[in-house]
């Protein structure tokens, strides 16, 4: 009888400790979901007209998405209205990223921008042919994302890959 009471007490202690340890992680999961949902609703942090004037490139923001809790990744899908040089695409990527950082400093750990020609868009962006992809990552690589501070983005590098 005494042994049964001790075992029941141990089981009760185990259950309480489990709840104490796992309860905060459940709340974190919930807030991860909230951050992603709110970010995709708010979406666009850039002033497209300002960037058009700055770069001379006519473009449209087709889609934007924010993924993650910590680190937070920012994605853009951009259509370019007229053919421009690779250098202009890179300037556009740089301007969009700088504008996003100015609007929400110290928020995003990585940026990826997918570029498309306006006249080659399919019925959905997912079915469209991407012409270029720009990433803005710490030291230019994914391995440092979320592991380095994002105070000033000083060690971040913009890489553009042209797929045409």
Name the features.
single chain, 164 residues, alpha+beta, Diaminopimelate Epimerase, Chain A, domain 1, 5-stranded mixed β-sheet
Task: Please explain how this structure is put together.
This protein has 164 residues and is an alpha+beta fold. It has 2 domains: 1-42; 43-162, Diaminopimelate Epimerase, Chain A, domain 1. The protein has 3 helices and 5 strands. A 5-stranded mixed sheet has the order 1-2-3-4-5. Helix 3 links the parallel strand 2 and strand 3. Helix 2 (48-55) runs antiparallel to helix 3 (86-103). The N and C termini lie far apart (78 Å).
What is the end-to-end distance? 78 Å
Give the number of domains.
2
Instruction: Name the helix and strand elements from N-terminus to C-terminus, one letter apiece.
Output: HHEEHEEE
Mean pLDDT: 82
What structural class do the secondary elements suggest?
A: alpha+beta
Evaluate the radius of gyration: 22 Å
Which runs of at least 5 residues are low in confidence (pLDDT < 50)? 24-42
Number of helices: 3
Assigned CATH class of the largest domain = Alpha Beta
The percent range for helix content is: 40-55%
Give a quick precis of the structure.
The protein is α+β, with helices and mostly antiparallel strands and 164 residues long. The chain has helices at residues 2-42, 48-55, 86-103, and strands spanning 59-67, 73-80, 110-117, 132-138, 156-162.
């Amino acid at each position: 009888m005494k042994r049964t009471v001790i075992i029941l007490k141990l089981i009760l202690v185990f259950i309480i400790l489990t709840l104490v340890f796992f309860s905060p992680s459940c709340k974190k999961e919930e807030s991860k979901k909230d951050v992603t949902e709110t970010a995709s609703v708010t979406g666009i942090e850039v002033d497209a007209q300002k960037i058009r004037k700055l770069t001379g490139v006519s473009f449209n923001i087709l889609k934007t998405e924010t993924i993650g809790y910590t680190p937070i990744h920012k994605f853009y899908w951009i259509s370019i209205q007229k053919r421009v040089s690779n250098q202009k695409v890179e300037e556009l990527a740089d301007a969009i990223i700088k504008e996003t950082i100015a609007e929400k400093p110290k928020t995003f750990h990585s940026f990826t921008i997918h570029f498309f020609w306006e006249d080659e868009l399919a019925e959905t962006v997912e079915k469209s042919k991407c012409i270029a992809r720009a990433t803005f990552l710490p030291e230019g690589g994914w391995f440092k994302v979320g592991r380095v501070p994002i105070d000033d983005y000083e060690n971040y590098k913009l890489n553009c890959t042209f797929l045409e």
